[in-house]
Every structure is written in structure tokens, then in C-alpha cells.
Design goal:
Helix 5 (204-210) links the parallel strand 11 (194-199) and strand 12 (214-217). By secondary structure, the protein is an alpha/beta fold. The protein is globular, with a radius of gyration of 20 Å. It folds into two domains: 4-148 and 302-332, Quinone Oxidoreductase, Chain A, domain 1, CATH 3.90.180; 155-278, 3-Layer(aba) Sandwich (Rossmann fold). Helix 3 packs across helix 4. The chain has helices at 66-73, 142-147, 149-162, 179-190, 204-210, 239-245, 263-272, 285-296, 313-320; strands spanning 4-5, 25-31, 41-46, 54-64, 83-84, 88-96, 108-112, 125-129, 133-135, 170-173, 194-199, 214-217, 230-235, 249-257, 275-278, 304-309, 328-332. 25% of the residues lie in helices and 28% in strands.
Length: 334
């Protein structure tokens, strides 16, 4: 079975129709080659079927993340196209596969598909392990829920699971107004930490609304010039920024960097008597439950800067690659 390109429009996705052999199809933001946003096409592709331990979800909304933009243009962690991108998803369970006991058809769920190989949420339907998902909090809609999982799990796993951030500690969050960063600010505050965030000056008011105690303008200030020292640095920028972050750690402190290529940072950290680790996000039901609980208590909120219908997903890629997005962008499907 092959995908069939159809004209991209602003209309809602069409109802599923069968392929010639009778198998159901769906619409997906699909690509058959690597390249810029122009390689993305709204296409009819086979609808997946849930396997053992999986659920089939009717996607209401799906988040965009920088990893989507990177994998569209390069074969990084995924095999080459054809492929449909997207890891964040919020929607309704259509079918539960063999052995699934946690969810039933009609349940509203949100979560992150297993990273990186579980990709495919930028479509009308997607399958994934039942235990990658939790019930969608009633106080948020599908758009907000879809914006949350990958970024919030990254922040939670970096600060809580990896750095063991505790009350009274001081944390520096780079790119604090971005998708991971603005959620990390809130999670760190909920843990009782003192939070400093780096971002351009126009975004400082936004960070203070989220609870940041101090802000650094990365355009005009050098975070290493201050006498301030931190127990934890969360680095979403990588490269030299991660290496320089070692300088501002207290004894016993840790830099958690989210980008690969952190070997030099680790070597520099060892010489300084501190730690540096590279972390890749994992699907994690316990983490999702903790995030959902924070959302239900009103302690964690996601900022959605813009939404795009499925047919206009290429525009989201164009906007995301500017690197100026505040918070998250979301694709709407239903």
C-alpha cells in the first residue's frame, strides 16, 4: 500500500475511506524525501492497527517540537522517509489492542509516543503503547494537552529524575521561554527551587509570570559573568553553551544537556569536580501521571503560541525553525 498525495486545504480532515484492498486509510502530514518544509504533503496513508499492548487513538491535536523540524531534514535517529513525524498526542481511544486493561474506547488520553521510533502523531490516527499514555486532565483541552508531553517529560526527567532537584537549591534554565524551558521553570518552582532563566529581554515578563526569580538577557548579558552559582543547570542549547555552564556550578552540581555531543562538556565537568550528563527523553507513564497531577492542581500550564490545521503543518515547520517561538505550537486535527 502506498500513500496518495491530496491537495492541502484549510478544511477539516475528510472521513477515512478504504484503499483498493479494503484497508482503511487516514490523512497524515507525510514526507517521502528529506528536505525543507516544502517536502511535507497532506497524504492518504494506511491507518495503523493496534498491536499487543497498544491503543489506537483518534488524534484531536498533536504538538510540534524542535526534534520534528530536525528529523524532517536529516536522518538523525529515524530511518529515511517515507515517514510521518510527531511524538506528542492528545485524543480519544478508538480501539484497545490485545491485553490492554488501562483504557477503553472513548477514553480521552494524552502522552508521548516512544522516542524516537514511535513517531507518527501528525495524522488522524496513531497507535502507541497503552502505558505511554494517561487520562487527559479535565481542566485542559486537547490543544493544551497535546502541547505538553514531550516538553514536560523532558523537563521532569531532567530536573527530577536526573538532577534530583530539591527545595532550596538554585537552578539555571537556558532557553527558559521555549517549549521545555517554560515548563521546566514551573516544575522547578513546584520543587521549591530558586529559578534563574535565560531569554531575550522581551520574554522576561513571561518568565516572571511563570515564577522565575531572576532573568538573564542572553543577548546582552553573559551568564558566566555573575558571581551566582547553581546546583543544577538545564541546557537546551548544547555546544559551547553547555561547556560554559560548567563554570557556574556549585561543588557537586550538575549540568543536564538535552543535545548530543556532550563529551567535551563531560570532560570539562570532571576536571572541575562537577557532573555533566546528556539526557534523551523517554516515554514514561509515571512521569506523565506526575505531570497530569500538576496540571489538575493548576501548578503547571503550557503556553500555546499558535495552532495550525493538519493541512498547514508545513507552515508550523517554517515558523518553528525561526527559533523565536514562545512556548509551544500545536497541530489541530479534530
Amino acid at each position: 500500500m502506498t500513500s496518495t498525495d491530496i491537495p492541502a486545504t484549510n478544511d477539516s480532515p475528510v472521513p477515512e475511506t478504504p484503499l483498493a484492498d479494503g484497508a482503511p486509510v487516514m490523512l497524515a502530514l507525510h514526507q517521502t524525501v528529506l528536505g525543507g518544509p516544502e517536502v511535507l504533503r497532506l497524504a492518504e496513508v494506511p491507518r495503523p492497527e493496534p498491536g499487543i499492548g497498544e491503543i489506537l487513538i483518534a488524534v484531536h491535536a498533536a504538538g510540534f517540537n524542535p526534534t520534528d523540524f530536525m528529523h524532517r531534514g536529516q536522518s538523525l535517529l529515524l530511518p529515511p522517509p517515507p515517514l510521518t513525524l510527531g511524538w506528542d498526542v492528545s485524543g480519544t481511544v478508538v480501539e484497545a489492542g490485545h491485553g490492554v486493561t488501562l483504557f477503553k474506547p472513548g477514553d480521552e488520553v494524552f502522552g508521548m509516543l516512544p522516542y524516537p521510533y514511535g513517531v507518527g502523531s501528525h495524522a488522524e490516527y496513531v497507535t502507541g503503547p497503552a502505558r505511554a499514555f494517561v487520562a487527559k486532565p479535565a481542566r485542559i483541552d486537547h490543544v493544551q494537552a497535546a502541547a505538553m508531553p514531550l516538553a514536560a517529560l523532558t523537563a521532569w526527567q531532567a530536573l527530577v529524575d536526573t538532577a534530583d532537584l530539591r527545595a532550596g537549591q538554585r537552578v539555571l534554565i537556558h532557553a527558559a521561554a521555549g517549549g521545555v524551558g517554560h515548563l521546566a521553570v514551573q516544575i522547578a518552582k513546584e520543587r521549591g527551587a530558586h529559578v534563574t532563566g535565560t531569554a531575550s529581554a522581551p520574554k522576561h515578563a513571561f518568565l516572571r509570570e511563570l515564577g522565575a526569580d531572576a532573568c538573564i538577557d542572553h543577548r546582552t548579558e553573559d551568564f558566566t559573568d555573575s558571581d551566582e552559582r547553581y546546583d543544577v543547570v538545564l541546557d537546551a542549547l548544547g555546544g559551547e553553551n553547555a561547556v560554559r555552564s560548567v563554570r557556574v556550578l556549585r561543588p557537586g552540581g550538575i549540568v543536564v544537556t538535552l543535545l548530543p555531543g556532550a563529551e567535551r562538556t563531560r570532560v570539562v565537568a570532571e576536571k572541575a569536580g562537577v557532573r555533566a550528563v546528556h539526557m534523551a527523553v523517554e516515554h514514561d507513564q509515571a512521569g506523565m501521571r506526575a505531570i497530569a497531577e500538576l496540571v489538575e492542581r493548576g501548578r503547571l500550564r503550557v503556553h500555546v503560541s499558535d495552532t495550525f490545521p493538519l493541512a498547514e503543518g508545513a507552515r508550523a515547520h517554517e515558523q518553528g525553525e525561526t527559533g523565536r517561538t514562545l512556548g509551544k505550537m500545536v497541530i489541530t486535527v479534530r
